[in-house]
Amino acid sequence: MKKWTIFMSIPFLMLVLVSCNTGDNQTAENENGNKTEQNSKKPDLNNENLSIDFNEAIDEFSNAYPDASITKVELDSDLNVWKYEISGVDDTTEYEIEINTDSKVVKKQKEEALDKDETNGIERENKQLDLDAVILPEKAIEAVSKETEDEIDGWTLERENSGTYYEVTVRNGNSDTDYIVDAMTGEIVKKDN
Predict the structure, then answer these.
(1) Per the record, which residues fall in region Disordered (predicted)?
(2) Which CATH number fits domain 45-192: 3.10.420.10, 3.40.1190.20, 3.10.450.40, 3.40.50.720?
(3) What is the value of pTM for the model shown?
């Protein structure tokens, strides 16, 4: 009788253990080997209050590289921490920095010589952003939010062909959609799944 009771209890215990482990939290080990609980749910930019805004991030890059022109600005999250990645060039070198929006720590990520066919202002001419003429990222997000209620996963601002665009990434479960927004007018020009 005892064997039968134990045998019948095993499926019930397995069901209980599986249901206890279906939440959004996961256990991971930190660098000291201690177990910590992490939330696996990705953040939604609609629900964030960032400590550093677009203009402050631009100023950080300009302070680090005063002679460089900005060619790309991106905001995305990495393990629930939002960060700006900003790229730029001068006549000989490409630069990239990363800014943690919580700690405001600025890391110089890359300084790399341009290829010979990109030097002497050619890359700067082709990729430089006119930051005085673009709308703020909040306006691009506002335009996208009128089209969908899905979570905002981040955005990128850069020149492509003859225009300057925000690419706003929207997440619905495991599916991402990119909305291409004209950075001068705020008009959605394309939607890519």
Answers:
(1) 25-48
(2) 3.10.450.40
(3) 0.77
